[in-house]
Amino acid sequence: MKKFLSKSLSSVVFFALAIILTFTTVAPGQANAATFKGIPFEQQQIIKELLEKNERVINILINSFVEEDNNYTFDVKKAVELGLTEEEAATAEKFLDRAAVLTIVFSESITKNEKGKLVFDAAKAVELGLTKEEAAKFEKLFKSVIRIADLAGDALVLDKKGKVVIDSKIAKGLGFSSTELLVFNQMLKKIPQEQLKTFYDAVQIAKEKLS
Predict the structure, then answer these.
(1) Could you tell me the residue range of the domain that residue 93 belongs to?
(2) Which positions make up the signal peptide (predicted)?
(3) CA-based, 20 to 30 A from 73: which of 57, 93, 171, 194?
């Protein structure tokens, strides 16, 4: 199992899952040219459906990562102990192995433009081994991540009861539509407040360091 380099387990896992959901194939004819080349189309569809519909599987995957010196690896045996079948755990490991490689390519393809803003360098990503189609998908994923980061950094606030909520006015000022806010609010409802507060505190600390 290849190592994910990160100080945040949640960011490692959720980014890996985002990559898998973004790049799994959508038609059998595309399987040979897929990012997850070498993994049968049927397995790609199975893992995608599991991740999209089964919260239990995602929780098991998150809890199956082990950490050593800020390096995270996926423990197949632990995943089986937590409830995955051996076949499911082995399939998940294949995908996470590839996601680990893609995470490195992704991070090395992010640069700053003349205005000092982070941008995704598609040409560099292609040089590092992605196809033009994959680089285009990654660029789209990057833009989504940046928008979510903007929301997380500036629009998450504490309400009068001390709960982490989205400030609609701030979010709309950042360019988020009413539909996007509805989706984000639904997502927040599924995340325990304890986790949200931990994330909120981390964002505030990061903002203080950067100010």
Answers:
(1) 4-105
(2) 1-33
(3) 194
The position carrying tokens 């360019």 is 175
Q: 68: which 2 tokens?
A: 């050593």
Asked if the structure places residue 132 within a domain, the reply is: no
Residue ending a domain, among 86, 105, 124, is: 105
Q: Using N-to-C axis directions, what is the helix angle for 132-154 and 9-23, rounded to 10°?
A: 140
Render each residue's pLDDT in the chain as its tens digit; 211 residues: 556 555 455 555 555 666 666 666 555 555 444 466 666 667 777 777 766 666 677 778 878 888 777 667 889 999 999 998 898 888 888 877 777 777 777 778 878 778 777 788 889 988 988 888 878 878 877 776 666 666 666 788 888 888 888 888 988 887 777 766 776 776 677 667 776 776 677 666 656 655 5
Longest dimension (CA), the chain: 54
Domain membership flag for residue 169: yes
